[in-house]
Design goal:
The protein has a single domain (2-106), classed as Rieske [2Fe-2S] iron-sulphur domain (Rieske Iron-sulfur Protein), CATH 2.102.10. 7% of the residues lie in helices and 43% in strands. It contains one helix and ten strands. It has a four-stranded antiparallel beta sheet with strand order 2-3-4-8, with no helix packed on it. A three-stranded antiparallel beta sheet has the order 1-10-9. The longest helix is centred in the first third of the chain and has 7 residues, at 10-16.
C-alpha cells in the first residue's frame, strides 16, 4: 500500500474538515470524499457503486451514513456497507494520523 499525505498535521485536518460535511479530494486522478466525525476521518470513493452518482453531492445522516443524492442509498462510514439491504458496497480507504501528518492508504 502506498501512503499519500493529505494534511501536514491533525490540526490542519481538523481545521479544514467540518464535522459531518463532505470534503472532496483528487488522488491520482480519482475523486475521493473525506468526512470527519469528531477525531475520526473516513475516506471513500466519490462515486456511488449503485448508479454512479456523485456522493460529494450527498449528505451524512444522524446514523453516520453517507446518503446518495440519486436514490438515497445509505452507506456506513464505518465499513462502506449499504445500510438498506441493497447488494452494493462503497470503496473505503484507510486513513492514518501520524506525527508528520494525515495520510491516505492507496492501493
Amino acid at each position: 500500500m502506498h501512503w499519500i499525505k493529505l494534511f501536514d498535521s491533525e490540526a490542519e485536518a481538523t481545521q479544514r474538515l467540518e464535522v459531518g460535511k463532505i470534503f472532496t479530494v483528487a488522488v491520482n486522478a480519482n475523486k475521493l470524499c473525506l468526512v470527519r466525525d469528531g477525531n475520526t476521518i473516513t475516506a471513500f470513493k466519490a462515486i456511488c457503486p449503485h448508479a454512479g452518482a456523485s456522493l460529494s453531492d450527498g449528505h451524512v445522516n444522524a446514523f453516520g451514513e453517507i446518503v446518495c443524492p440519486l436514490h438515497s442509498y445509505r452507506f456506513s462510514l464505518l465499513d462502506g456497507r449499504e445500510a438498506s439491504g441493497h447488494d452494493c458496497e462503497l470503496a473505503m480507504y484507510p486513513i492514518e494520523v501520524r506525527t508528520d501528518g494525515v495520510f491516505l492508504g492507496w492501493r
